[in-house]
Amino acid sequence: MLTDIEIAQSAKMQPITAIAEAAGIPVDCLEPYGKYKAKINLGDIPADFDKKGKLVLVTAITPTPAGEGKTTTTIGLADGMKKIGKNVMVALREPSLGPVFGIKGGAAGGGYAQVVPMEDINLHFTGDFHAIGAANNLLAAMLDNHIYQGNSLNIDPRRITWKRCVDMNDRQLRFVTDGLGGRINGVPREDGYDITVASEIMAVLCLSTSITDLKERLSRIIVGYTYDEKPVTAGELKAAGAMAALLKDAIKPNLVQTLEGTPALVHGGPFANIAHGCNSVMATKLAMRLGDYAITEAGFGADLGAEKFLDIKCRYAGIAPSAAVIVATIRALKMHGGVPKTELGTENLEALEKGIPNLLRHVSNIKDVYKIPSVVAVNRFPTDTDAEIELVINKCKELGVNVVLSTVWAEGGNGGIELAKEVVRLCEQPNDNFTFAYELDGSIESKIEAIVKKIYRGAGISILPAAKKQIDMLTNLGYSSLPVCVAKTQYSFSDDPTKIGAPENFTVTIKNIKISAGAGFIVVLTGDIMTMPGLPKVPAAERIDVDEAGVITGLF
User: Fold this and answer.
1) Exactly one of 72, 196, 296, 407 is catalytic; which is it?
2) How far does CA 517 lie from the centroid of its chain?
3) pTM metric for this prediction
4) What's the rounded Cα separation, in Å, for the pair 60 and 377?
5) Which of 101, 129, 300, 506 is an active site residue?
6) Distance (Å, rounded) from C-alpha 281 to C-alpha 298?
7) Deepest of 162, 201, 327, 440, by most Cβ within 10 A of its Cβ?
8) What is the spatial distance between Cα 469 and Cα 147, in angstroms, rounded to a whole number?
């Protein structure tokens, strides 16, 4: 059996100019990065590109080590739509180097449903993440330099909230002390690093609609507080212009292709457990302008990525999905029912029935909370039995949602034709019922509680004293009307990763609250969530290599 990278390397890619032409993108708008990838200069897109295609959101059940295949399904669905003659665009997130070298893998799909060039997309790509890291760390450098040069803004070094970042899983950098070595080497203080995708710069870039909007958002970023507890912004440090200059190319969406030549925009940030986990607004809107159907995804389970996509991104961008796809596997549902990973290939209807409530809760949230027409895509494995599939179909029918089997990993677009037909059927139904999980005029506490009760189905929240103090401060500063971005484990509806399936009567503990004023949301940290992951005992990096011809091996 071929590996993902072997499948990708054996594909015959079309020149990116041909992909652009098929998508209706004028060649003058392209800024090629080699033969097979390019950036799109939106400023050169003609004004008459004003149509608005149907938006389809692909999300998933709570992830497990068995895998679900959300990105693979997204790509295969787009290829399936192309097979049935639809004008379709894909809008995906860019992979972070952290998971690529760690344990989770990249974000270019798998099997015969991938975007290519897969190695480039997973490793550096067009340099967007490096630009984001540079802008983030420029702000950190200007902040510390301001303090060193006299601190005219009266910044309290003990109340600096801005961290440096690097796009790598490096637990050693979570907490550091810097500025050591005497006066000429800076001001000693406690510091730390986030992984680049957790940087507010990533969220700012993904939610910006233009260079002007980008600069305004960068200016609003809060880096810390003064001795008299007033917020200090990047604008006050005069950093926004230089940061935007570093991001001037990164803000342009990237164009690539699927294995079957479907145009794909890959742009912006993953990690919906610690960030908002969606690709850029600019890429999504461009996909809707170019295609009759725009297929996009949001990170991890629907309680994380989809919730943030709908309550944050859609709210700010003024868009709404016409349909949603909830991806599941029989294997993963059996894990939610208590089956160990080593026994997933054996039929087990009892365990499956115990695990299905996880899927049904996600389905109910999309259908009943957000009022979006939806379909369940079961990413089929050879070990799945007819009885197991029938059980999932019957349980979903009780909620009025259809189930479609997807075999896109093995068959590419041909394996996504039935799913494509069902998605088109859903999109053609009139639906103006989309609603958010909460309104913005409530308190910060009420918005967090709405997510916990409506989406996670928990009993409520417990706010620790330090977090309560932060809520009060942000409320007094006038930020209570912003949406909230909950950072929690991706492995459970609760904040406890061991509570798999569909737990009930749990309380979510709110440990920390911080403001992302540039992005325009309040970050709510729960459980033991970390914004700088670590590498596993045997990282994927140990298997990756390159030969004299520059051919990469071991990349999934």
Assistant:
1) 72
2) 19
3) 0.94
4) 9
5) 300
6) 12
7) 201
8) 26
If you average pLDDT over each of 5-9, 42-46, 342-346, 424-428, which comes out highest?
424-428
Please, are residues 522 and 209 in contact by the beta-carbon 8 Å criterion? Answer: no
pLDDT tens, residue by residue, 253-285 = 999 999 999 999 999 986 777 778 899 999 999
Beta carbons within 8 Å of 268's beta carbon, 6+ residues apart:
93, 94, 128, 202, 205, 206, 278, 279, 280, 283
Rounded to the nearest 5°, which phi and psi values hold at 301? -75, 170
CA distance 239 to 448: 32
Per cent of the chain over pLDDT 90 is: 82
- Mean pLDDT, the chain, as a whole number? 93
How far apart CA 293 and CA 29 sit, in angstroms, is 21
Cα(459)–Cα(250) distance, rounded to whole angstroms?
A: 42
> In angstroms, rounded to a whole number, what is the distance separating the alpha carbons of residues 205 and 67?
29
**Which whole number is the average pLDDT over 126-130?**
96
Residue type, 74: T
Which of helix, strand or coil describes residue 165? strand
**How many Å from the N-terminal Cα to the C-terminal Cα in the chain?**
13
CB 415 within 8 A of CB 407: yes
Give the Cα separation of 100 and 251 in Å (integer). Answer: 22
Say which of 101, 309, 381, 493 is annotated catalytic.
Answer: 381
Beta bridge partners of 328: 378
As a whole number of angstroms, the distance between CA 42 and CA 286 comes to 8
Q: Which run of H or E residues covers position 453?
A: none
Q: What is the pLDDT of residue 47?
A: 58
At 301 the pLDDT is 92
Q: What is the pLDDT of residue 265?
A: 97
300 is catalytic: yes
- Could you tell me the CA-to-CA distances from 348 to 388, 462, 519 in Å, in that order? 8, 37, 45
For residue 121, which of 251, 8, 247, 230 has the smallest C-alpha distance? Answer: 8
Q: What angle do CA 249, 136, 487 make, to 5 degrees?
A: 105
Q: 192, 555 in Cβ contact below 8 A? A: no
Is pLDDT larger for residue 551 or for residue 52? 551
User: Which one is catalytic: 140, 272, 306, 332?
Assistant: 272
Q: Has 72 been annotated as catalytic?
A: yes
In one-letter notation, the amino acid at residue 393 is I
Catalytic position from the list 409, 493, 521, 556: 409
User: Catalytic site residue 409?
Assistant: yes
Pick the closest to residue 302 from 163, 401, 170, 415 (CA basis): 401
Residue 463: which residues within 8 A CB-CB, separation 6 or more? 445, 471, 510
- Tokens standing for residue 269: 């940030």
> Which residues are registered as beta bridge partners of 60?
327
Of the candidates 54, 70, 220, 488, the residue annotated as catalytic is 70
> By C-alpha distance, which of 362, 375, 364, 279 is closest to 324?
375
What DSSP assignment string belongs to 487-499?
E--SS-SSS-TT-
Structure tokens at 484: 């909230």
DSSP string, 519-530: TTEEEEEETT--
Report the distance separating Cα 251 and Cα 230, nearest Å: 31
List the catalytic residue out of 83, 104, 313, 447: 104
Which residue bears the tokens 């930020």? 479
